[in-house]
Amino acid sequence: MTTAMHSGSDWRTVLRRLRRDRRSVLAAAALMGMIVLVLAGPLLIAYKPYEQLDITNLVHAAPSASHLLGTDAYSRDVLSRVLSGGRVSLAVAISAVGIEVLVGVLWGLAAGLGARWLDAIMMRCVDAGMSVPRVLLLLALLAAVPQIPVWLLVLVLGITGWFGIARLVRGEVRAIRSGDFVLAARALGASPPRLALRHVLPHVLGPVLVSATMAIGQVIVLEAGLSWLGIGVQAPQASWGNIIKDGTEFIASAPWVTLGPGLCLVLVVLAVSALGDGLRDALAPRQLPRT
Amino acid sequence: MTSDTPAPPPPLLSLRDVRVTFRTADGTITPVDGVSFDIGRGETLALVGESGCGKSLTALTILRLIDAPGRIEAGSHIEFDGRDLLTMGDKELRGVRGKQVAMIFQEPMTALNPVYSAGEQIAEVVRTHSDCSRGEAWAKAVAMLGAVGIPSPEIRAKQYPHQLSGGMRQRVMIAMALVMNPSLLIADEPTTALDVTIQAQLLDLLRDAQKARGASMLLITHDLGVVAESAQRVAVMYAGQIVESAPVVELFASPQHPYTQGLMAAMPRAGTRRERLTTIPGTVPPPGAWPTGCRFADRCAFAWKRCTDEAPAMHHVGDGRWSRCHLAVEPERRTRIAAAGATA
Amino acid sequence: MRALIQRLWQGLVVVAIVVTATFVLVRLAPGDPFAGALENARITPELRAHWRAAYGLDGSIGTQYLHWIASLLRGDLGWSTSTNQPVSHAIAQALPHTLWLMGCALVLSFALGMCLGAVQAARHDRVTDRGIGAITLFGAALPDFWLALVVLLAGSFWLRLFPVGGASDPLLPMAASTLTVLADRLTHLVLPVLTLVILIAAPVARQQRAALLDKLGADWVRTATAKGVAPFAVFRRHAWRTALGPVVTLGGLALPALVGGAVFVEHVFAWPGMGHLAATAIDARDYHLVVGCVLVGAVMVIVGSTLADMLSERLDPRSTQHGDDLQRVSA
Q: Which of A79, A225, B140, B233 counts the highest number of beta carbons within 10 A?
């Protein structure tokens, strides 16, 4: 009986609304398609992402039938690198967002359910976290490490991005705490931990899910940017960001190396934004006027 | 010599067969379904019904304030002072709104713009409909605030809605409505959001203002007590239709429609000792699922086969009295069923 | 007045947290700052100890922290090994360029974004709305560094209209007229500003559209229409004006992301601002400079969002600033 009374609808209704929204269905399909492609990629393409095909003739070959996205400075097939990189980029983004959600929800719950003073301190930390430009913070954290392992990248991305979710959760918890129905539940004898789990958590999950969906788009772009700067995913492991990095130097002569992965990034962000919007609409539909 | 009774003056406002539909994800609904009534000059008509019956929407329709996904269906006819409100051009309609027909809304906190002062919002009406300068408009606004009983109006006029109490905000709304001397006031549950003592004051204010200007009023409410105090005639609405209309005294004395009777019986009265409040069994049908036949049939103690098969028309049941009920043509059933001991 | 002080106090607390966090970061940086710089055998252990003491690295964590605060207050952010000058000097040179770039970009993008959003809301659900909506959706999805590269590609290499980078032409003769200098500066400004405008205007337009649509459904808009006010006046006075506050607040909240995006844009266009400084510092592993940039960046953002909050409060009289002067009396 985890009805999300906040929006007056339960999960089945939300799913139904989502299914009816053409834009969300399209976005979800696009995302699924991309995930399938990057996972199945190595099976579909003959070339390996690290394979230097023909260093004398195939360096920076323009896109053609055999190389849909051309080749790069080392005569590697760009499309296979993009697919391989996509796996890394998507995996990093999803895991980092997972960490964001975990930390954010726990922090927000603690602050929302805790005493006033605890809430104040915890929220000031959130404010501080939100004030620092995330990119600068990531620079500061990652620049000190000479060779960044992927797990560290994921961790750092995650711990720099939970602030918004924490604030969201804390806000919802505070609102619910002073809400009438919580009073009613307590009058019926519900204890605080049970209150938290059964009544508060389900309400918060909806908006958190929307945030998390959008966050995937933000993080994947961030990781790409960091890799482009050289402090993200390290060579020889491909990621969309470092493919663009390799291509930047030759942007005038071989633009396809930069454009290919970039368009993939744009596509992911578009799909994720549309899905997030659709989720938000599905959770809180517009009401008819009073009669 | 036979005396010629002069023909009654034409009504100020006349609604005929007004129908409003809304297109929703689940289909088209018709929350206002064939509403007709008249309001004479200087008269107050109360439109009564529970939440969801369509009374507020009916009021909004008069000034064409219905927005997509709602629409006023063709075949609806609204006439004000001899002019057709539904086919009027936009510019002409704007000349009517706020000046000849003015509306007072239910929730003054949200019905007033939070970033402008009370005085500015009243002055806005003045400047929209006349060539007054800012200073003149402001002076009129302040004067109007005083006229609706707000003390220190010069100070209050500069205040923002959130700085005023609920009763005061509603007085501001009333001032806004009265400032251009409209001939018709539409008050949509003007006192519902306020407590009872303020309610009495505001109703008195409205009544006095109306009488002083010779204006008519359409008073929307769900509170029968308010009706008794303020109206000359009453129209009862149920499920998008008018089910009964009568002069107020007669309505209270002998309600004809079973729904009206139920409403009257449900009113707790001082002086009677009762264990439980009487309720009307069942619930209002949702606007997407109007039944064929009488919409009140499944809750009506008097219903018989004809009621579920055939929707009743408005029948004349007395002088200025109408009832949408088959009992009007088969009155003997009423006594028969009552005698059989069924709860009435 | 009271609210202003409270606001400043909150900002100060946040700055304190950021300062402390950066202190922790600096201490966590692997390696002794003096190990590399003092490879020279001629530098005796006594000298090393002296330098350590001078930089406060010999005391406990507590004293080190106090040293850190003290040096910050003095304006001393450490030494930049890559540019061979105090960090504060490097930042002081770069900061004006960033402010200039961000300033132009913010003004233009907010103006554009708010217009687009307003047009969309006014023509809700019609072709114009959907068309602009598609463009802003696309714009908001563009990665900052990638867009910068594309704009550079298109503007400098394909169209050959604009210079490849930098803030000015280093080869311009000293005696060049002011007009030439101005024109030169402007052409260098175009591409980076264009990139930032596309990046910022898109989400601003989306936010403005959402805020306006929300306010358009407000009861007071219906009241205004019922009063006979003309449609454009209703839109302007009752929808747009009430939607202004939230847009400004959101602008303030988006400042951190803006500054972050500027890092990439500056780097691509070799714009000599703080972002470019930070990016090159990373390449050179100049850790103190990186941290200095982070700190200054954070302070800039805090100042900016405080200003935005204050502006938004001015726009909405429901804030306590106006309210506590006047009395509330019941009817």
A: A225
> Residue A9 pairs with which residues in a beta bridge?
A4
CA distance A8 to chain B (A): 17
Cα angle B285, B289, B292 (rounded to 5 degrees) comes to 90
Say which of C140, C143, C257 has its CB closest to residue A224.
Answer: C143
Residue C71's pLDDT is: 77
Between A and B, how many residue pairs show a Cβ–Cβ distance under 8 A? Answer: 19
- C14–A134: do the CB atoms touch at under 8 Å? no
CB A37 within 8 A of CB A86: yes
Q: What is the secondary structure of B58-107 as a DSSP string?
A: HHHHHTT---TTEEEPBTBEEEETTEETTTS-HHHHHHHBTTTEEEE-S-
- pLDDT number for residue B186: 94
The two structure tokens encoding residue A10: 């339960």
Alpha-helix runs per DSSP H in chain C: 2-28, 33-37, 45-54, 61-74, 87-122, 127-141, 144-152, 178-216, 219-226, 231-233, 241-268, 274-283, 287-315, 320-323
Q: Which of residues 244-303 of B touch A (CB under 8 A)?
A: 287
What's the number of CA atoms in the CB half-sphere (13 Å) around residue A50?
A: 4
Q: Do B287 and A20 touch (CB under 8 A)?
A: no
Complex confidence, ipTM: 0.85
Give SS3 for B280: coil
**Closest Cα of chain C to B264: distance in Å?**
32
Which of A123, A131, A138 should one mutate to test binding to chain C, selecting the residue with the greatest count of C CBs within 10 A?
A: A131
Contact B198/C at CB under 8 A:
yes
Please report residues of C whose CB lies closer than 8 A to that of B103: 223, 226
Answer whether 0.80 is exceeded by the pTM.
no
For residue range B60-86, list pLDDT tens digits in order: 999 999 887 888 888 899 999 989 999
Closest listed residue to residue C80, CA positions, set C71, C70, C91, C72: C91
| Helix H or strand E segment including A221 | helix A201-229
- The answer to whether the Cβ–Cβ distance between B70 and A289 falls below 8 Å is yes
Cα(C211)–Cα(A200) distance, rounded to whole angstroms? 28
Sign of CA dihedral C124, C128, C130, C132: negative
Please name the member of B97, B164, B167 whose beta carbon is closest to the beta carbon of C228. B97
Q: Which two tokens stand for residue A215?
A: 């966050």
pLDDT digits (tens, 9 = 90+) for B24-42: 877 888 899 889 999 999 8
CA closest to A287 among chain C residues: C217
Cβ count near B135 (within 10 Å): 9
Q: With contacts defined as CB-CB under 8 Å, which chain A residues touch B288?
A: none
Hey, of C123, C213, C227, C328, which one would you mutate to test binding to chain B, going by the most B CBs within 10 A of its CB? Answer: C227
**Per-residue pLDDT reduced to its tens digit, C246-305:** 888 877 877 888 888 888 899 888 888 888 888 888 777 777 787 788 888 888 888 888
Could you tell me if B175 lies within 8 Å of chain C, comparing CB atoms? no
For residue A5, is pLDDT > 50? no
Is the pLDDT score of A130 beyond 80?
yes
pLDDT averaged over chain B? 87
Which residues have a Cβ under 8 Å from the Cβ of B164 and sit 6 or more positions away?
B118, B156, B172, C328
